[in-house]
Amino acid sequence: MLGIATTASLGQWQLNRAAQKESLQASMDAQSSKHRVDAALLLATADPTTLVHQHALLRGQWLADQTVYLDNRQMHAKVGFFAVTPLALEGSGHVILVQRGWVQRNFEERDKVPAIETPSGNVTVEGRIAPPPGKLFELGTPSQGAIRQNLDLSQMQAQLQAHMLPVLLVQTGAPSEGLLRDWPAVNLGVEKHYGYALQWFGMATLMALLYLWYQFLRPYFHRTKDSKPHA
């Protein structure tokens, strides 16, 4: 009975997790369908994180010498870098980090920074507002220099010495400037939770059937058999 209760509760927990992620996915879809964000709206929003997943079109100048390359990032099953360059928004003292794209690394010279193009002057960048990229396991203190394992916002803030927004712009569009931008669609793994729930409920059902057989049906058939008169 304890096993049945435990597995059934685990199945219900997986269903609840699936419902939570479906709600989050609906919220993300609603955000992405809203009107496109420009610099004026972005700067006027008290909490820019509320704009996450919305499309944006921003104009400014690249701070090319402050570009960092996030190591061990994959695209098309190949390992390389995410190139992140600060964009100084036009007509303001604000900076937003832009995840510009992916570039393959040089495995013969692992410390060599890949060659990408960074236009000078004012540029217009299209993308979507996003939280900072997920962090990978890293030993010790956050790395510095051009090649880094993770993006540390406080470290970048100190490096830039400018007002940096707490969100990222993931640049979208066709490959350009030596960078690929085939970003995968966000998959929250809702189907996985339904699969786990089915497994847990299946185990609960199996234990319930075994309990019913050994505690009630099997003894009943034995008693019935023993009570029959012998020829």
UniProtKB/TrEMBL annotation:
The yes or no answer to whether the keyword Transmembrane helix is present is yes
Species name: Rhodoferax lacus
Q: PROSITE patterns of this UniProt entry?
A: SURF1 (PS50895)
Q: Which UniProt keywords apply?
A: Cell membrane, Membrane, Transmembrane, Transmembrane helix
Task: Tell whether Cell membrane is among the UniProt keywords.
Answer: yes
Q: What is this protein called?
A: SURF1-like protein
Query: How does the protein's chain sit in the membrane according to the entry?
Result: Multi-pass membrane protein
Q: Which GO terms describe its cellular component?
A: plasma membrane
The protein's superkingdom reads: Bacteria
The entry's localization annotation reads:
Cell membrane; Membrane
Transmembrane residue ranges: 194-214
Taxonomic lineage from the root: Bacteria, Pseudomonadati, Pseudomonadota, Betaproteobacteria, Burkholderiales
| Family of this protein | Belongs to the SURF1 family.
